[in-house]
Amino acid sequence: MKLNLTHPIIFIDLETTGLSITHDRIIEISLIRILPDGSEKSKTWRVNPEMPIDPKATATHGITDEDVKNEPIFKELAKTIAAELEGCDIGGYNLNKFDLPLLMEEFLRTDVDIDLRKKNIVDVQVIFHKIEQRTLSAAYKFYCGKALDHAHSAEADARATYEVLKSQLDMYDGMEVKDADGNVSKPVVNDMVELAKFTTFKKHADFVGRFIYDDKDRLVINFGKYNGKLLDEILEKDQGYYGWMMNADFPLYTKKILTDAQLKRKFKK
């Protein structure tokens, strides 16, 4: 099924030095832009991460330290990549939990200001896991009937994700899906706004879900001893909470949300 687009969507895939959002770095990024008329163009960059690649990661994607030692660092590419994302929705596989949080960390380290929360984010893995429960290679085989050659190269994975989404819409368009509690969600439809809603489990304020919004758009802590508590109330009650989070191993974007809340609270006084 051709995607029903009102403006472009970019499918993103990253290859990285490892699996830590806060510590690892991008070594390859691929963007496939799909225009409303169905035409496409792709760009892929290799990136010098300025740190060693974990051998386990190399065993997965095949990229070595030698392969990227003469490539530009992310800071040299950040503004170009941010410009590519301007005015586009975003699609990907495991986007919510890995690619977007790690990409945002890279942007924040280079002081490039980009607000991905304003975009429709469609995570193809969530559609798959809500209905079928598989990996990208299995999803590609299941939905497209083909083996995923060159898996774990950024462009191959991004392109496979795009093809999987189109096939998912062919298979599930109009289907009503029940959640874990048996409640029926809105049906799967060929609309980027609705797909973005469908592929978001909670209304996250940050990409890793340490803070979420309640039904009144108030920030709520979503982990630890204050799980379920309003962030403003805890910042007022526990004077050390802000400092603890800022000094702990949380993603930079999570810390940005926290700092924005702290400043907003103080300016209200």
What does this entry look like structurally?
With 269 residues, this protein is an alpha/beta fold. 42% of the residues lie in helices and 14% in strands. The protein contains eleven helices and seven strands. The strands form two sheets. The protein has a five-stranded mixed beta sheet with strand order 3-2-1-4-5, sandwiched between helices. A two-stranded antiparallel sheet has the order 6-7. A hairpin with a 5-residue loop joins strand 6 (211-213) and strand 7. Helix 6 (136-144) packs across helix 7. The radius of gyration is 19 Å and the shape is globular. The N and C termini lie far apart (53 Å).
Indicate the radius of gyration in whole angstroms. 19 Å
Q: Poorly predicted ranges (pLDDT <50, ≥5 residues)?
A: none
The global form is globular
Number of strands: 7
Total count of helical runs of at least 4 residues? 11
Order of helices and strands: EEEHHHEHEHHHHEEHHH
Rounded average pLDDT: 90
User: What is the terminal-to-terminal distance?
Assistant: 53 Å
Biggest sheet, spatial arrangement of strands: 3-2-1-4-5
Keywords:
five-stranded mixed β-sheet, alpha/beta, globular, single chain, two-stranded antiparallel sheet, 7 strands, 269 residues
Short description:
Helix content is 42%, strand content 14%. By secondary structure, it is an alpha/beta fold.
Helices, strands, pairings?
Elements lengths: L8 E8 L9 E9 L5 E7 L8 H7 L3 H4 L5 H12 L3 E4 L2 H15 L11 E3 H8 L4 H9 L9 H19 L19 H7 L12 E3 L5 E3 L9 H7 L3 H7 L4 H17 L1
